[in-house]
Amino acid sequence: MKRTQLYLDDSLWKTLRICAGQSGQSVSELVRQALREKYLGSAGRHDAMQAFVGIRRSRRDIPDTEEYVRELRKGDREKRLSA
Known about the structure:
The protein is an all-alpha fold. Helix content is about 60%, strand content about 0%.
């Protein structure tokens, strides 16, 4: 994490202080959160990746991943590598 300084006008500072008090977060955290939403998107990279996990789990038109990988691994690979 990097440290930076910002110059905020009085009305913005007062608004941030009030919001920080109401939410139980620091002014710094509110600023970081706003910047993440603005420049990384509303969900943020981590949230987007979490939403992607398991996306194909309920699909029935594709084979089970574990079975598919085991089928790919069948063969004479061990014999070829030991030769």
